[in-house]
Structure formats: C-alpha cells, structure tokens
TrEMBL record:
Known cofactor(s): Mg(2+)
Pfam families (alphabetical): CobS (PF02654)
Gene it is expressed from: cobS
The organism's taxonomic lineage, starting at the top: Bacteria, Pseudomonadati, Pseudomonadota, Alphaproteobacteria, Acetobacterales
Enzymatic reactions: alpha-ribazole 5'-phosphate + adenosylcob(III)inamide-GDP = adenosylcob(III)alamin 5'-phosphate + GMP + H(+); alpha-ribazole + adenosylcob(III)inamide-GDP = adenosylcob(III)alamin + GMP + H(+)
Descriptive protein name: Adenosylcobinamide-GDP ribazoletransferase
Transmembrane segments: 26-47, 101-121, 133-151, 171-187, 194-215, 221-240
Source organism (scientific name): Commensalibacter oyaizuii
Length: 241
C-alpha cells in the first residue's frame, strides 16, 4: 500500500519483519480492490451531489491520481518517451530514467487520460455498473502487471524491477487466476471473456514490446501495463453498459 498509494499506512511497517517486494506480489489485487473501492465511492458521491458527467469524470481521475501519486501514469509517460525517442537499448533506458517529460509522454498521457475521462463520463448513466467497472479496472490492471514480470527479465541490473526477478509461482498464479475469474462474476460471460482476453493481449503485448526494445521490463513498463489495462477496462465497461 505504501508503494502503490499515498495512503498513510507507514504505521503498519514492522522493522523486525523482512519485507520482500517479490513475495508481496500476491497482495497487488487486494491493493487494487481497496483503491478501486475508494475511487468508486468518490465517483458515486460526486454523482449524488448532482455534478455534470464530465466534472465527475475529471474529478474522479484527479482523485485517483492524488491517492496513487500518479505512479503508473508516470511509468506510461516514461515508457512512451523512451521507446518512442530512444535510438538503442541504453539510450531508451536512459530516457526512461530521466524525470523530465517529453513530447511522446505528454501526448500519450493526454490521449489516455482523455479516454479514461470519456469512459467515466459515459458510465455516470449507470451507477452500479460504473462502480463495478471502476473496481474491476483497479484490480485487473494490477493483476496484469504480473505477465511482463513472469515472461521477461529485468532490463537493468538495478532499480525496482530487479526485486521482482524471483516472484514466487503461487503469487503469479493467484494474480492470473483472479484476472481470469473475477470478470465472470460481474459481466455476462461473453463480456467477461472479452475483458480477460484484452488483459492478456495487453500483458503479452507489453512483454513483447519491452523485450524487443530494451530486452526486458522496467518499473516504467509495468506502470504502462497497468495504465493501459485500466483504460481498456473502463472503455469496455462503457461499451457494456
């Protein structure tokens, strides 16, 4: 929770308990569930206040960025800058580590956040379905991150991604099973199947893209995977409503 959000959970830290980021992978869907519930609650409150759909959509997006610190969106922007503007592996990795925002990253964020806002604005017509979709996007997008990790290797020999090079297989399978099953409890089977298929395509696609460009994944690649998956699920939710 302290890594994926800005929520005040530091008091839960135990110095006598050795923390392993790889071992904690099984908690990612739980973190997504909590963040999704918080965002969905905020979304519903704004609707009941009587705000317009577009204000509700952008305010919800802003609230989500506030509680997550824009962690995943930052990864998406860095990935777009690096893969779009880099000449070779080292140059791309160097750009991705640069904190400055480039044109590729800026344009990508504008498009992605615009798509999310459009989907959320459309979802305001169906409150129950909207809350389910927001929560589902938060859970499945964090489950999908496991695909590039499981089928790739860290592109650098340092950084956050290296801590995920030895994720326990039970944690991997728990994420994949959640991603494959949860949509069927919310959507009709054919809609659920499309949702799961899209998650798999994005996860595999980002794995292939990362291996082709930088020979592995980085934290930015994982953030991009999460954001693209969440955006896709919101768009699908607006179609299924």
């Amino acid at each position: 929770m302290s890594f994926f959000s800005r929520l005040p959970v530091g008091w839960l830290y135990r110095p006598d308990f050795p923390f392993s980021f790889a071992r904690a992978v099984w908690t990612w869907p739980v973190v997504g569930l909590l963040l999704g519930v918080i965002a969905a609650f905020f979304f519903v409150v704004l609707i009941h206040i009587g705000l317009s759909p577009w204000i509700v959509a952008f305010a919800t997006l802003g609230f989500q960025l506030l509680i997550t610190g824009g962690l995943h969106e930052d990864g998406l922007a860095d990935t777009a800058d690096g893969l779009g503007g880099g000449k070779d592996k080292e140059h791309k990795l160097s750009i991705m580590r640069d904190s400055r925002l480039g044109s590729y990253g800026a344009l990508t964020l504008i498009i992605i956040l615009g798509l999310q806002a459009s989907a959320l604005a459309d979802l305001t017509k169906h409150i129950v379905h909207a809350t389910e979709t927001i929560i589902l996007s938060a859970i499945l997008s964090r489950c999908t991150i496991i695909i590039p990790i499981y089928y790739g290797n860290p592109a650098r020999n340092n950084g956050m991604a290296t801590q995920l090079s030895a994720v326990p297989k039970p944690a991997v399978f728990s994420n994949l099973i959640i991603c494959a099953i949860v949509p069927f409890f919310i959507y009709p089977w054919h809609f659920a199947f499309i949702t799961v298929l899209c998650c798999a395509i994005i996860g595999w696609g980002m794995s292939i893209l990362a291996c082709r460009h930088i020979n592995g994944y980085t934290g930015d690649i994982l953030g991009a995977t999460q954001t693209l998956t969440a955006t896709t699920i919101l768009i699908l939710g607006s179609l299924f409503s």
